[in-house]
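DM from R.C. (forwarded with permission)

"hey, sorry to bug you on a friday — could you get me a structure for this? deadline for the figure draft is monday and I only need the backbone to look sensible"
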Amino acid sequence: MSEHFKPSATLLPTNEPYRIAVRRLRWFRAAFIRFVEAIGRDLGCEFVVDDTKIAAVFVRWLETIDRQRPTDKSKRPAFFAFAASLMFKELIADMPIKVGTAPTKVGPNSPEAFWPEGYVCTLFCLSVHSAAMEQEFHVETIVSPDLNNIRSWWSFRENSLEDNRFAAGFLQKLLGHEPNWSWPSSFAARIGDWLAPEK
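My reply, with the result:
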């Protein structure tokens, strides 16, 4: 059963709407680092962050979403989910964090222990999406139980390391959308309407 997503850590405060703040490298970098540190404390581990990779991830993500941004404003809720999935794709493609010590506060068969870096990046993208959706459309983010299903993570890690586009589809699936696995990083090729959930 799908459930409401409650971020494990709070995002960096901003005086701007999240949809604008996340498009600024300074905020993106600071928010990501703060988030990683907070989740690291929750998991009982430390992460090493690569600043250069964060900047590269951000630039590629921003260029990609700017190229695909729809002119039809009714598609904005769907595009928010899509933008989050592309952010995730870029993070997985050029992973900017490495776990320094194994997590000590989670079970050995949990997704957090299986792939701490991937799990943290997932939570960050879901948290940014959740904050923006709540702020812009007053709806809560619903996520699939696959978020905590270790078997889903085995498949995800194996496939995304072969083709990082798979990561975009994985996050779309977590958000309750059926990905177009042939073209998961194309907004125009998405399957279904991707409507925002009602309040």
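R.C.: lifesaver. DSSP finds eight helices and four strands in the chain.
me: no worries. The two ends are 18 Å apart (CA to CA).
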